[in-house]
Each structure stands twice: as C-alpha cells, then as structure tokens.
Sequence to fold (277 residues):
Amino acid sequence: MLHIGCHLSCSKGYLNMGKEALSIGADTFQFFTRNPRGGSVKPFDLSDAQELNSFMQEHAFAPVLAHAPYTLNACAAEESIRDFARRTMREDLERLKHLPNAMLNFHPGSHVKQGAERGIELIAGMLDEVYTSDMPTTVLLETMAGKGSEVGRDFSQLKAIMEASKAGDRLGVCLDTCHVYDAGYDIVNDLDGVLDEFDRVIGFERLKAIHLNDSKNPFASHKDRHEKIGQGALGLDALVRIINHPRLRHLPFYLETPNELDGYAAEIMLLRGKYEG
Ligand code: FE
Ligand code: FE
Ligand code: ZN
Fold:
C-alpha cells in the first residue's frame, strides 16, 4: 500500500483536511501549522482535532505532517527572530499533543553570515529549550537545497544538529526529493548510493517521511523550485523508482508540487498506478 498525500490548506479546519485528502485518493496529508509567511495562528479547536483523529483512525491514515512556517528561523542573527522560532515551535508542539498521528517538520534555518557551525549550535539550543520530554510528537528536520545560507544542505549538517541537541535521539528527517537533488545528491542516477550515504551519515532509521517533488532546476543548482511530478529535472521514472525502492516504499510520501486539488488527485492516481505490489 502506497501511503501518499499532498499539501492541503489548513484554513478549513482539521477534519475538513482529512475529508479533502480522502476525496483525492490520499491516505495522509501535510498542512501548515499557521500562516507560512507570517506566523499568525487561529485559536486551537480541540473538538475539530479530535474529529480528525477518529476520521484518520477510521480510514487507516498514515502519519500526517504538520509543517512549521517558513518564517521560523531558529538560527537567525537577530534575537527577536530566534525568539519567534522558540515561541512558535513550543506552541505548535503543545497543539500537536492533541494530534497523535502527526509529526512536525521544520526547515532547520538560515545562519545569515554567522556560519553553519554557529547555526547548528543555535538550532540545537532552540530544540533543547522547547522540545521537552513531555512532547510526544516526532520532530523532523527537512533536507534543504542549500540556497543562501540554509543549514541542512547536506546530511552531515542534519547529523550535527542531532548530535548537538539533547533531544537529538527523538529527531527524525524528512527527505525532500527536489531539495536533495538541487543540493547535489544524485537520486536520479545513483539512488542506492545516496541512500547508503544517508545511512552512513545519519542512520536510516531516522528517515520518517519523503516530500515527493520534481525540480524546476538542474542537478546541484541549489535553487529549491518544485515542479509537477514528471515535468522537471528528476522525471517520472526516477520518482517511480523512489516510491518503489525497498528502503523507502513503506514511508509516507507528501506531494508539494505546484498544483490545485485536481492536479494533486491526478498525481496521486498516477503514482498509485506505478506502485508495485
Ligand atoms: Fe518544507
Ligand atoms: Fe519540502
Ligand atoms: Zn522546497
């Protein structure tokens, strides 16, 4: 069974996202915990969350992915921005206590001229402060394309965050296919080699989710522009090899391709048709 879904708008509430996912043939989905480019958040609706929980159970949903806002930068140079990151992460984790089927994914951050080493230290420090042991949610670091001063452009930086944080052994990784290809991991011609490297550097058991995206830009471009499935530099064959790979095929896949709902439905149908077994 292929576990696949797409990014959905959270503006209609929790239960409605579940229903929307089901209506397009998905058995999971991703949503922003709050306005992705600002950070404002609606009041938490506990009964809506509980209704989604029963809905997901009833329909055997795979884990869903909550995505932190893009404005969350735990390793910013300015203290006020780092403070926003701490508050946002803590608040989102508090809410997610009520959504046990969700993991929280975040972009490690951009170190803005402080250097990757300092960035890693700040990110680990933020996690130590807010990701306390009473929080059951698995937090995922996303692999980044390496544009600007992004931390997480290679596997060793993600590993370094895990090693620097006391919460490190509770962290997982979300591998974004567009990002790693843009970062210079050749998952088109050497998928096995990249997965071996992931295992060697981070440990394969840490891989919890895949963002399944094609890329608008060529290999190692460090750009991060997602493309529709099969219409970019990765191509359909490479993405089909990824969903069928013995080390990946059990993981949940989340589309973040430039689509409306009908486009997502078509991609999910296409990929379900290419899934073996
Ligand atoms: Fe992301
Ligand atoms: Fe992503
Ligand atoms: Zn991206």
Notes: The chain is about 40% helix and 15% strand. Residues 199 and 205 are 8 Å apart (CA to CA). The longest strand covers residues 171-176.
